[in-house]
Amino acid sequence: YSVQLTDVNGCLATDAITVTYAAPAPIDLGADITLCQGQSITLDATVPGATYAWSTGASSPTIDVSSTGNFSVVVTQGQCTVSDAIAVLVEALPTVELGPDLGLCPGETTMLDATGPGLFYLWSTGATTPSITVTANGTYTVTVENAANCTATDDVTVTYAAPGAVDLGPDVVLCQGESVLLDA
């Protein structure tokens, strides 16, 4: 840009200036995200030569987040600043408890129940119901998932007893006053 100035006496003065717009690198922390309890995410605003001011007070190019909240960063690149923000929601893990391992007698059945509000189920048997009926030895595992795709797993081992055969021997005929010892 230049300007030419003429005063009342006809004297001329000129000056010029160059204006350049800097093109700061954009910052994108990504879309809002839901994490499961125990998970974390690294938020990255890295730009070479920049300085950082996170809403957490951090001044590093990246921060690790494992709690619910709104997180933002202001990145200063020379004379320019750019910013971005992200909402992080941490969902609780679902709970599932099938109980202790079980010992059953032959012919008995038991029901394993993982019922919980708003859960989806996948058993090691392939069943997708909240509960299953067990009639055989084995370790039975269930994975439950909530609407936030957070999962929990539990298992229980069911063992059927195999009692030994009982043999009291052949039939016996006794006379009055005699006895026999029966041994099981």
Number of helices: 0
DSSP strand content: 35-45%
Shape: rod-shaped
State the total count of DSSP E strands: 14
Structural class: mainly beta
Give the helices and strands as they follow along the chain: EEEEEEEEEEEEEE
Spatial strand sequence of the major β-sheet: 3-8-7-5
Instruction: Give the mean pLDDT.
Output: 93
Low-confidence stretches at least 5 residues in length (pLDDT < 50)? none
Give the N-terminus to C-terminus distance in angstroms: 113 Å
Task: Summarize the biggest pleated sheet.
Answer: 4 strands, mixed
Specify Rg, calculated over alpha carbons: 38 Å
Helix coverage percent of residues? under 10%
Care to describe what's here?
The chain is mainly β and 184 residues long. The protein is built from no helices and 14 strands. It has strands at residues 2-6, 12-16, 33-36, 41-44, 51-54, 62-65, 69-77, 80-91, 102-104, 110-113, 120-123, 131-134, 138-145, 151-160. The strands form five sheets. A four-stranded mixed beta sheet has the order 3-8-7-5, with no helix packed on it. Strand 1 (2-6) and strand 2 (12-16) form a beta hairpin. It is rod-shaped and about 155 Å long. The protein starts with a strand and ends in a 24-residue tail after the last strand. 8% of the residues are buried.
Offer a quick outline of the entry.
This protein has strands spanning 2-6, 12-16, 33-36, 41-44, 51-54, 62-65, 69-77, 80-91, 102-104, 110-113, 120-123, 131-134, 138-145, 151-160.
